[in-house]
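Help!! Second protein's tokens look totally different from the first
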Amino acid sequence: MLHLRAVCPQEKTASALGILRAHAGTAHLVVHRGAAVEPAGDLVEADIAREAADEIIDALCALDLDHTGGITLEALDTALSDAADRAEEAAPGEAADAVVWEELVARTGEESRLNVTFLAFLTIACLLAAVGVLTNSAVTIVGAMVVGPEFGPLAALAVGLVLRRWDLVRRAAAALGIGFPLAMVVTLGGALLVRATDVFGADAFRLERNHDVDFVFSVGVPSLVVAMLAGAAGMLAMTSAKSAALVGVFISVTTVPAAGYAVVAAVAGEWSRCLQSVGQLLVNLLGIVAAAAIVLIVRRNGQRSAVGTRPLSRG
């Protein structure tokens, strides 16, 4: 269940109540007359089935409440109520399969912002990847995968392309287009410092000896398959609120490690490996976005089909 709060101008409260009353997925409808101060109006609250959320929000936005008032949603961990049980049973489908599109847009939009935190995580991840390459440590490479924050902008790219939200596309492209080069430049400085001080030993830059991390730069069909599977799993996790599954997505793709490997290979003068690593990075980025977009298209079409058979009235 989700808890819905809507600030309504008084002249629109009756219409908002009508929408909520008419939908079988609504429970615990409450109205606080004149409770809203800024913007002024009434406060309407209800618990709604996740499967019903997208349709209800669309109807409330059609009243222009997102501009003249406000609409917020929050997840409910527990709802002990027969009315809530009836609402969930009346809404067709399963909560885990329901996509709340406005929630998805808001979430991916927030995670795709180019800010200091994003740049710091991406830079640290690239530095970890470079250390993993220099020390021939697959464990450190996996650590870099987990730290990397790049899936947020990649998911935002897919959402923006499918929903034609070009503001999301621009924001995500900026985060990736600025973030990766900046992180790689910082990593380049670190790699040059390591080489100058010889802190990791004389053989650290002999990459032909580091067979445990060869998977980072070995680009090919398997790389594309893994990237697409990861992109599909990641988007499924985001659209079904199964956020724990995202950790598996981070570990399965070699975006950040490929960037770190490319830098180390360039410092070592291994230009073939450097170019292969850049290719690995591009293949993974494109594969993730493509698969995520396909998942969104399939889920969007499926949800539209379900709306045609959804009972809107309580009878």
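Here's the second one for comparison:
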Amino acid sequence: MPSPNSLRVAAAQMTSVSDLAANFATCSRLVKEAASAGAKLLCFPEAFSYVGTKDGDSVSVAQPLDGPIMNQYRSLARESSIWLSLGGFQEKGSDPQHLCNTHVIVDDTGKIRSSYRKIHLFDVDVPGGRVYKESSFTEPGEDIVAVDSPIGRLGLSVCYDLRFPEIYQLLRFQHEAQVLLVPSAFTAVTGAAHWEILLRARAIETQCYVIAAAQTGKHGDKRESYGDSLIIDPWGTIVGRLPDRLSTGIVVADIDLSFVDSVREKMPIAKQRMPIDFWKAASL
């Protein structure tokens, strides 16, 4: 039984492909499902609108945030009166060879409230997998971003950022985030090894809710995502999870910001944090 202070949220799980119209149709269906379930916010995974068949394909579909692709999704939010977390949108970059991997927050009137450009780019030789070089076609962002919403203060990130706890520390202790959003397309190999444990660690060390919407399944011959969309509370407990990692659908959970306050009061790490001089520590 949800508490009187609870707020309903949802996280999507899907398998985006190299077809903008097909992905939009899937997202439209999931938005309607989340709105019918009473969710105030629906979070989509990284690359929700497009996944190319090879690295760099997405540059060809990149558009500005006021372009027709984003305007479609803004209309979805307005028509269903729901906030949307659109993680990993292919935003047009500063030159024709690059894009920005941008997390966009749209309110229930269709207005863009905030955007965050992914800082940490996925340049990795995955063990037993393939080599990724996101920096070859993506410009890194520079700014930490948090935004107020009906379900609390949201801290924005994208996928590979999850491996860098500093960004989440800044979101919590400098930007006062209560809910961390982690839209992702984790590889099958790295997801199986680290996805859940990293998400729960970020929730525990920041005392925030974490909403992690995930891509899943095979996007083509060369790319496969792990799946497992999760909603985690500030104590590190999973409070929402789809029945399986491969299905397209939404997971819904009721979150309670008074529980955030309770966890933080009982374990006041914000007051107990000690300044650390990393340069001095490195020289010892």
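Reply: Different proteins will give different token patterns, so don't panic. The domain at 6-283 is CATH 3.60.110.10 (Nitrilase/N-carbamoyl-D-aminoacid amidohydrolase).
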